[in-house]
Amino acid sequence: MTDPNHPTDPGPQGDPGDPGHPGDPNHPRDPNRPGDPNRPIGPDHPDHLREPVPPSHPYYQELEFLTHREVPVRFAVRYGEDHQPPGRPGVLARRAILGAGSQVLQYRLVTSAQGDPHAYGLLEREVEAAVALERRYGGAKFGAVFARIAGFDLTAAEPFVLYRPPTGRPLSEWAGRLGAEDQERVTGQLAMAVRLLAEAGLVHRAIAPDTVRWDGARVRLCEPYAVLRAGEPREPFGGAPWASPEQRAGQGTADPRDDLWSVAELAYTLIAGRPDRGEGPPADLADYRRLAALGQSGLFAARAADRPHPAELMRLLHVPDPLATGAGAADPLDRWRTAYDQQIARKRAASGGAPPGAAPHREAEEPPPPAQRPTRPTLRDRIFGGGDSFRPVAPPLPEPVPLPPSRSRMCPHCLLPVEYDERLLVTIDTKGNRIPLDLSAERRPGHVADALRKAYHLCPHTVDGDEEHELPVPYLTNGEPLSIALVGSSSVGKTHLLAAMLGEVELGGLEPYGLKCRPLNPEAHRAYLRERVQSLKDGRQLGRTGQQTFARFADGLLVQAGAAQPRPVVFFDLAGEDLAQDGEVGRFLMGVDAFVFVLDPLRALRLPGLDPVREQSGLRRRDLGDEAFSTVLNRIPRQRGGLVAAPAALAVNKSDLVRFEPVVDRWLGRALPGRHDPAALRDESRDAYAFLAQHASAAWLKPFDDCADCTLHFVAATGGQARGDRFPHGARPRRVLAPLLSLFALCGLLPGAEPTEGIVR
Stretch 446-461: mean pLDDT, rounded? Predict the structure, then answer.
């Protein structure tokens, strides 16, 4: 078998993609042009416009885009005619000439197709796969088996991706013209391509005679427009015989061995001279001696699980594995993953090594009973008239003071116990007026339940100088409440992240995990959905959270796991200025049950690729960490070896800004699993910790260092940068429920969740 890793590349004569063609910018006629035809079209390209230059002729335009390294470049450009590429609805293709003659192919999503978020998602997924392949294999000779990306712009009015023109002709045009040696080379190189894809965690899904090219020396796969990540649910794609039965039906999860089915069918077609039906091993497979080994290996099996792995097939074909020599290459993040493990061990030792399955943290002691406050008129008194007759009566001094209610009935605002009292029920009208609610005469249980569902309970602890406040009645009449605060400085995206979280909840995102959600108060929830969630869904940037004089939660849910009693969950979203100041508005933090620390890559990461975005947004990198992180962590009571007992999640928001970093791409590019997976949770935490430890100062990891239970997550609340006050292609949240699910698991709210390895309680 010929070695497919180092093929010669004479290129067909007259092909504009051939390095010997006069239309190519790398042609040796120009000594100032590099000789490598695979050299990226980047800022060092001779035709790159470093300064704005008016087009020399109306026939020319300018095209700005990012290279695969996310370096912005700009070229004069001439476009060819549009055509509709097969298998890509909503996308138009055309040739383009950059500068003095560098040819590319442009695939762009037309405006009329952008109403379908799935269409944009397909282009986005294609770009992510093409960039990942270029970064991983673009510098190696064997990388030529893939379509070579030249650039992209996913924020343009019509998002697009650019590729270098392919060499060779489709395999369908070589029918009956390939000798036995070339047939073996094609099969071997296709097996190698699938092996490289599998190593990158990708499944191409579009390997067929019309999409695979052969130039006499090497194959080249088409653009990865149908790609899926290994392990993602299969989406129906392709037809018989080239797509496997499971892929055509959209059953199970994508597997690199889906592509091996396509390789097997192509090998059969090349040797037999005709395609098979595509339902299993060909009936006449035994008639072709050169296919015997492939058939015996199970390559034609209808199920992916019964086929060999790509590396096994390469060994069977005696094709050298290009990745074998690099198997021992060290990942630079491994030292930081080890540091994560050491930190987990340190926290486990400091906390006494709580055994798995221990109950969520609770205060070591019950809080002392609140001191009896002097009687003074309250909002309740002013509404109903009178004075002490409407207040809870203090017990006579000779009698023992009753124990306060459990912490589960603490007011989340003032941190004082609240007992349910029908005399303190009110409703709130559209003008914000509190209207007393008297249900004493109502005898219909259904009407009473419906009224209480929408009613509020005044907090009896308001004193002069405090803001009057109330609690939704379901907060007091259901299971143990859970309060969650989002922490971070101004403009890190806390408000967008919370809106994206609750938007996903509204769309049923928690149901696969056995959780049912209802509003804590229907009117307040509808207002939040209308003003925040729907605005974000419509692509509008949300206004900054204003500073407050009193901490109120933004929204609340009743979350029920199976047949268990529903538990109120309330979310606090305070302005970054309020969190960064050690003021009275932050008193409630001492009673918060769980925290989401929101990290902004623009402030934290030492990555030069973020500098242009920093310049546009006016943000600066800070080595001293987030002021809000430090202020909040310094305020929360410490227990158990000096660690914060409240569970926490560190969310690397705006991760779409660094989505092409391999470790980020590994997680952000995948949907959340449909069940709680402690191993995956631990792996993501290790990767996120390692990524931050490598690219940010230690101060940004303070939440993980200080909190006994802290997971780390890559999330994106909007999926892109705003232009003006809008997101050009809408908000596309990614993995925003991951921090919430982690906190639910740590707080005993997620059915079947076991404590994650390394988590201490």
Answer: 90
According to DSSP, the residues that pair with 648 across neighbouring strands are 595, 710
Q: For the chain, what is the mean pLDDT?
A: 84
Instruction: Please tell me the distance from the alpha carbon of residue 721 to that of residue 250, in angstroms, as a whole number.
Output: 33
Q: How far apart are CA 70 and CA 490, in angstroms?
A: 27
- What's CA 133's distance to the chain center, in Å? 20
* Strand segments (E) across 688-756: 710-714
CB-based contacts of 62-66 (< 8 A; 24+ apart in sequence): 63/96, 63/98, 64/153, 65/151, 65/152, 65/153, 65/160, 65/162, 66/151, 66/152, 66/153
Sign of the dihedral through C-alpha 378, 380, 385, 391? negative
Distance CA 94, CA 171 (A): 22
pLDDT at 19 over 50: no
Three-state secondary structure call for residue 121: helix
pLDDT digits (tens, 9 = 90+) for 618-660: 889 999 999 999 999 998 888 868 999 999 999 999 999 999 9
Please give the structure tokens belonging to residue 720.
């892109």
Looking at 529-605, list the stretches that DSSP marks H as alpha helix, in order from N- to C-terminal side: 534-537, 576-580, 601-604
Determine the Cα–Cα distance for residues 38 and 17; give it in Å rounded to an integer.
10
CB contact burial 534-546 (16+ within 10 A = b; e otherwise): ebbbebebbeebe
State what percent of residues in the chain have pLDDT above 90. Answer: 61
Taking each continuous run of H as one helix and of E as one strand, the counts in the chain are: 21, 24
Q: Give the model confidence (pLDDT) of 695-720 as tens digits.
A: 999 999 999 999 999 999 999 999 98
Mean pLDDT value of segment 418-431: 89
Task: Name the residue among 521, 526, 524 with its Cα closest to residue 506.
Answer: 526
Tell me if 126 sits within 8 A of 225, measured CB to CB.
yes
Q: What is the dihedral angle through the alpha carbons of 637, 640, 641, 647, rounded to the nearest 10 degrees?
A: -70
pTM of the shown model:
0.83
Distance between CA atoms of residues 671 and 235, nearest Å: 13
How far is C-alpha 67 from the chain's CA centre? 22
What angle is formed at CA 529 by the lines to CA 528 and CA 534, rounded to 5 degrees? 130
